[in-house]
């Protein structure tokens, strides 16, 4: 793979822009003995995790991008947000412009979180991974930590586990797990992702959700050291965890 092709595959612009970066000596590759300049006509065989540098910034090569973002409040999971800033604006340009065979460039969110919901958001340019993680058929559990406006009673958890009816579907929707952890706090696990599902389920049992945070997907927890608005790559172990039940 030519160096400009490598840059193009990683989202650094058009093929012409990527070729220009190489020609200007703005790209270095870690050959095992440190970062070195390479000519455009040198063949490079990249491997996942290989380090390279573009305009003084270090990157790692990834055939497919798998990202974990700690979504802050006041952001929308949309490329064309209506009111609030897009979560994609929190990501560097190469992640937003990775080429794709579909019409959408860059990484895409695996499902959506409301603008006021915080916590774990996965993004990828791997369509099969996105489908597998978001499809209700695969029953990937997602843990939500929520705070209600009014005190919770002992029967709320029982009702949510037994199933509640939402206004757009006569079939009851059940929580996979539910634990009251405070007078106004509840931990709720779901394996599907209907529109505003958590808020609507709590509304069905007479409670308004004031705060909502997703802290776990599958067996993967939101890292305590990942601040709101920050992101990191997912490795193979992370991917195995988030796909597990």
Secondary structure class reads alpha+beta
Described by the principal axes of the CA atoms, the overall outline is elongated
CATH superfamily of the largest domain: Pseudouridine synthase I, catalytic domain, N-terminal subdomain
Total strands: the figure is 15
Largest sheet: 9 strands, mixed
Q: Which residues form runs of ≥5 with pLDDT under 50?
A: none
The number of helical runs is 7
Determine Rg (CA atoms, Å). Answer: 21 Å
* Helix content class: 10-25%
Question: What is the CATH first-level class name of the largest domain?
Answer: Alpha Beta
Q: How do the helices and strands follow one another from N- to C-terminus?
A: HHEEEEEHEEHEHEEEEHEEEH
Average pLDDT, rounded to a whole number, is 91
Separation of the first and last Cα atoms: 38 Å
CATH architecture grouping of the largest domain = 2-Layer Sandwich
Descriptive overview:
The protein has 245 residues and is α+β, with helices and mostly antiparallel strands. The chain folds into 3 domains: 3-60, Roll (Structural Genomics Hypothetical 15.5 Kd Protein In mrcA-pckA Intergenic Region, Chain A), CATH 3.10.290; 66-137 and 219-242, Alpha-Beta Plaits (2-Layer Sandwich), CATH 3.30.70.580; 141-217, Alpha-L RNA-binding motif (Alpha-Beta Plaits), CATH 3.30.70.1560. 21% of the residues lie in helices and 28% in strands. It has helices at residues 3-9, 15-23, 93-96, 127-134, 155-162, 197-204, 236-242; strands at 27-30, 35-37, 51-54, 57-60, 66-71, 108-109, 118-124, 142-148, 164-166, 169-173, 177-180, 185-190, 209-217, 220-221, 231-233. Strands 5, 6, 7, 8, 11, 12, 13, 14 and 15 form a 9-stranded mixed beta sheet that branches. Helix 1 (3-9) crosses helix 2 (15-23). The model has no long low-confidence stretch (mean pLDDT 91).
């Amino acid at each position: 793979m030519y160096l400009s092709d490598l840059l193009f595959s990683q989202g650094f612009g058009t093929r012409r822009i990527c070729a220009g970066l190489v020609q200007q000596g703005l790209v270095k590759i870690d050959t095992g003995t440190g970062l070195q300049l390479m000519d455009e006509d040198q063949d490079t065989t990249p491997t996942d995790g290989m380090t390279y540098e573009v305009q003084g910034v270090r990157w790692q090569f990834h055939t497919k991008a798998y990202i974990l973002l700690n979504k802050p409040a006041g952001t929308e999971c949309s490329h064309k947000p209506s009111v609030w800033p897009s979560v994609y604006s929190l990501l560097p340009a190469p992640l937003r412009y990775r080429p794709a065979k579909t019409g959408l460039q860059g990484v895409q969110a695996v499902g959506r979180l409301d603008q006021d919901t915080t916590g774990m958001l996965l993004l990828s340019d791997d369509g099969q991974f996105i489908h597998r993680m978001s499809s209700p058929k695969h029953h990937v559990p997602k843990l939500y930590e929520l705070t209600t406006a009014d005190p919770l009673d002992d029967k709320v958890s029982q009702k949510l586990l037994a199933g509640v009816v939402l206004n757009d579907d006569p079939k009851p929707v059940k929580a996979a797990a539910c634990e009251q952890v405070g007078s106004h706090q509840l931990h709720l696990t779901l394996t599907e992702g209907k529109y505003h599902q958590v808020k609507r389920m709590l509304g069905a049992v007479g409670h308004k959700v004031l705060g909502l945070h997703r802290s776990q997907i599958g067996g993967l927890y939101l890292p305590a050291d990942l601040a709101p608005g920050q992101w990191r790559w997912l490795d193979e172990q992370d991917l195995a965890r988030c796909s597990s039940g």
